[in-house]
Structures are given as C-alpha cells and as structure tokens.
Amino acid sequence: MRAMVMLWAAMAAYGADAALVAKGAAEERKACVGCHSLRISSTQRLSRAGWEKELDKMARWGARIAEREALVVYLVEKYGDDKPVEALPRSADGVGR
Ligand code: HEC
Fold first, then answer.
1. CA 37, CA 40: separation in Å to the nearest integer?
2. From 10, 37, 59, 77, which residue has the greatest number of CB atoms within 10 Å?
3. Is 77:21 a contact under the CB 8 Å cutoff?
4. How confident is the model at residue 9 (pLDDT cuts 50, 70, 90)?
5. Which sequence spans correspond to the domains of the chain?
6. Ligand 1 contact, 36 CB (< 6 A)
7. Taking the model in full, what pTM does it have?
8. DSSP 3-state assignment of 80?
9. By mean pLDDT, which of 24-33, 34-43, 66-75, 83-92 is the weakest?
10. Cα–Cα dist 13/58, whole Å
11. CATH number for the 18-79 domain, one of 2.60.40, 3.30.70, 1.10.760, 3.40.50?
C-alpha cells in the first residue's frame, strides 16, 4: 500500500508515464464513444477516486473497459481535479449548442 502511494505521488510529481497515457487515450476511443461524446468527460475535472467511481458507474451501465488502469491514468492526467477547466465553445449568440 505504501509503495502504491509513493508510486502515485511520484507520478503526480513527474507526470504519468507517457506510454500508459497514450494507451488510455486509445482505450477511451474504444470504450467511451458508444453512448455519448467524449466531451462529457473532457468537461469534467475529477480526482483519481472520482474517475474510478465514474468508470464503475459506466461499467454498470454497460461500458466494456479492457485497459482500465491506463484509462484511469489518462483521465487523471488530462481531466484531473488539479487541471484548469477549458473555456467551452459557444455559439455566436452565447446560448450554446
Ligand atoms: C453503455 C453506455 C455508456 C458507455 C459505453 C459509457 N457511458 Fe458514460 N454515460 C452514459 C450515460 C447514459 C450517461 C448519462 C448521460 C447524461 O447524463 O446525459 C453517462 C455520463 C457520463 C459522464 C457524466 C457524468 C455522469 O456520471 O453522468 C461521464 C464523465 C462519463 N459518462 C464518462 C464515461 C467514460 C470515461 C466512458 C468510457 C469508459 C463512458 N462514459 C462510457 C453511458 C455510457
């Protein structure tokens, strides 16, 4: 457990393994596009625990996730709760799409 925490801390400090992140991005394109757009994830900012919970929920709803660890690492790296929120695109009248 202690080793896991230290590994996690090291990853948080130096950035996650690029290969694992790329694998997670590929997994997202496979496992997460069947039911909704990826924007539903890219607009979230969640902790690792939050993403784990989200993936449990999606799995219960029918998502088939093969590379779960890579997917979690990718989601935390890109959409972690320490990442800034991007400005969302709006239509010209400001009402949104
Ligand atoms: C079997 C269909 C299905 C798949 C596959 C799926 N989702 Fe979802 N997801 C849903 C539904 C239904 C909602 C609720 C949509 C809404 O609120 O409009 C949702 C909502 C979400 C939300 C918004 C927060 C929430 O809980 O409502 C996030 C984030 C999310 N999904 C992430 C993912 C990720 C990451 C994957 C890939 C592992 C994934 N989803 C795959 C069905 C799916």
1. 6
2. 77
3. yes
4. low
5. 18-79
6. yes
7. 0.84
8. strand
9. 83-92
10. 29
11. 1.10.760
Of 33, 34, 13, 32, which is closest to residue 72 (Cα–Cα)? 32
By the 10 Å C-beta count (0-12 exposed, 13-18 middle, 19+ buried), 70 is classed as buried
Digit-coded pLDDT (tens) for 18-64: 999 999 999 999 999 999 999 999 999 999 999 999 999 999 999 99
CA 6 to ligand 1 center in whole angstroms: 31
Residue 67 CB–ligand 1 contact under 6 Å = no
Phi, psi of 46 (to 5 degrees): -125, 155
Distance 63 CA to ligand 1 centre (A): 8
